[in-house]
């Protein structure tokens, strides 16, 4: 007997390309949304693109968010009560997109995602990832109704944000390994479609690595396509499992213990070098992951993340505590073993 469930929620329109920011109004028109838009953005994207967005709508309202937190979501909901928007437009990086995604879900309105950086795969996914105290909540929320990603704008954004998006995609390799491990050892629900899509996305990105260079619009296009595809894998899975395993646990721990030091994608990239070693040993694919990251100018060592050896080892040994998700780090890794994996992979230098 089949249960009646919503299987996959996906965006209806995805526009990626040169100057498509100016087609946002038209793309929104095709969604038959009513009411005024509330644009949710942060200071830099508002400066760069806010006016171009506002010019395309009648009577738009704007809310500028400064941090990703549950308080920011509540503040946005209060603003929305006064504005009474028909829908939200999230303009910027992961911070405004995550906040708008969660607020839209609570308010029962749709939202449109307008990424101005290709820094991670949350730009399309049906998950909001919000830190709270000692934990991080990856909360289900409806994905955007449409995504409008202007490659001209994204190619102009700082290169390190794009390399972070690439590293977030490369980490799919180990995320899927953790997911399969959890299926074998804990009978966790696993989707062959989502797992295969996630791995293929990482594969294609690595194959096209030589095309991904600073300032090139083609590069922005390749990376955004990969981020969309990874977000779709998460929507199919109904969880972030296809794109978030033990490497993400380590990164979430670093966000707590060394906040603001490095970008999400860079942290998960370095962590995936080590979790691949834990999965497959010295003859596994850890060096290939490291080399792929290096080719894309993403960090491969703790020092390049701005994190000292002790901080990295502490994050490794405590990562399993951050969330109830079965991975290769289940039960924890002790300090000696953490030093061993970090040294063997060159993540720390001893
Ligand atoms: N939902 C999900 O699945 C995921 C969510 N996340 C979340 O995403 C957030 C991090 O994402 P990230 O995109 O790095 O965060 P931000 O939104 O903070 O953006 C990163 C930086 O880029 C700036 N910026 C944005 N657009 C441009 C541009 N075009 N040119 C120059 N600078 C620009 C921002 O400016 P300003 O400071 O003015 O905002 C900010 O300083 C975290 O909150 C993390 O938890 C991470 C991974 C997955
Ligand atoms: O970053 C993500 C996928 O790349 C989201 O994962 P989390 O569910 O761990 O926040
Ligand atoms: Zn991620």
Automatic annotation (TrEMBL):
Q: What InterPro entries does UniProt report for this protein, alphabetically?
A: G1P_dehydrogenase_arc, G1PDH, Glycerol_DH
Which residues make up the binding site for Zn(2+)?
168, 248, 264
Superkingdom, natural source: Archaea
Q: Where does NAD(+) bind?
A: 94-98, 116-119, 125
For the keyword Disulfide bond, the answer is no
Pfam families according to UniProt: Fe-ADH_2
Identify the pathway. Membrane lipid metabolism; glycerophospholipid metabolism
Functional summary from the UniProt entry: Catalyzes the NAD(P)H-dependent reduction of dihydroxyacetonephosphate (DHAP or glycerone phosphate) to glycerol 1-phosphate (G1P). The G1P thus generated is used as the glycerophosphate backbone of phospholipids in the cellular membranes of Archaea.
Species in which this protein is naturally found:
Halorubrum persicum
Q: What class of enzyme is it?
A: oxidoreductase
The note describing how and how many cofactors are bound reads: Binds 1 zinc ion per subunit.
Q: What CDD domains does the database record attribute to this sequence?
A: Gro1PDH
Subcellular location(s): the record lists: Cytoplasm
Q: What protein does this entry describe?
A: Glycerol-1-phosphate dehydrogenase [NAD(P)+]
Similarity remark: Belongs to the glycerol-1-phosphate dehydrogenase family.
Which keywords describe this protein according to UniProt? Cytoplasm, Lipid biosynthesis, Lipid metabolism, Metal-binding, NAD, NADP, Oxidoreductase, Phospholipid biosynthesis, Phospholipid metabolism, Zinc
Cofactor(s) needed: Zn(2+)
One GO MF term? glycerol-1-phosphate dehydrogenase (NADP+) activity
Binding-site list for glycerol: 121, 168, 248, 264
Binding locations of substrate: 121, 168, 252
What are the BP-aspect GO terms? glycerophospholipid metabolic process; phospholipid biosynthetic process
GO CC, sorted alphabetically, is:
cytoplasm
**Reaction(s) the record says it catalyses:** sn-glycerol 1-phosphate + NAD(+) = dihydroxyacetone phosphate + NADH + H(+); sn-glycerol 1-phosphate + NADP(+) = dihydroxyacetone phosphate + NADPH + H(+)
Main localisation: cytoplasm
The EC number(s) this enzyme carries:
1.1.1.261
Q: Which gene encodes it?
A: egsA
């Amino acid at each position: 007997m089949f249960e009646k469930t919503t299987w996959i929620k996906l965006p209806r329109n995805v526009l990626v390309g040169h100057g498509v920011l100016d087609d946002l109004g038209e793309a929104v028109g095709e969604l038959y949304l009513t009411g005024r838009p509330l644009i949710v953005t942060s200071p830099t994207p508002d400066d760069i693109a806010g006016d171009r967005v506002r010019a395309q709508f009648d009577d738009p309202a704007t809310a500028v968010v400064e941090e990703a937190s549950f308080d920011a979501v509540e503040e946005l909901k209060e603003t929305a009560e006064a504005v009474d928007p028909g829908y939200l437009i999230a303009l910027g990086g992961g911070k405004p997109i995550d906040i708008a995604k969660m607020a839209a879900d609570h308010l029962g309105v749709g939202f449109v995602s307008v990424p101005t950086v290709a820094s991670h795969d949350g730009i399309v996914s049906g998950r909001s990832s919000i830190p709270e105290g000692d934990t991080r909540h990856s909360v289900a929320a409806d994905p955007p109704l449409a995504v409008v990603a202007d490659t001209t704008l994204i190619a102009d954004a700082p290169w390190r944000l794009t390399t972070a998006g690439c590293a977030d995609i490369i980490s799919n390799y180990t995320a899927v390994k953790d997911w399969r491990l959890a299926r074998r050892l804990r009978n966790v629900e696993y989707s062959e479609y989502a797992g295969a899509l996630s791995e293929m996305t990482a594969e294609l990105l690595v194959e096209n690595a030589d095309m991904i260079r600073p300032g090139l619009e083609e590069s922005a296009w390749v990376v955004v396509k990969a981020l969309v595809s990874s977000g779709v894998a998460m929507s199919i899975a109904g969880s972030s499992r296809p794109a978030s395993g033990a490497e993400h646990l380590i990164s979430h721990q670093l966000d707590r213990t060394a906040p603001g030091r490095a970008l999400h994608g860079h942290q998960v990239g370095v962590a995936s070098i080590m979790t691949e070693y834990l999965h497959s040993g010295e003859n596994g694919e850890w060096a290939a992951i490291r080399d792929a990251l290096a080719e894309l100018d993403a960090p491969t060592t703790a020092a390049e993340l701005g994190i000292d050896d002790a901080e990295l080892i502490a994050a490794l040994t405590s990562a399993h505590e951050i969330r109830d998700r079965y991975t290769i780090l289940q039960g924890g890794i002790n300090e000696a073993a953490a030093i061993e994996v970090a040294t063997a992979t060159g993540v720390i230098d001893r």
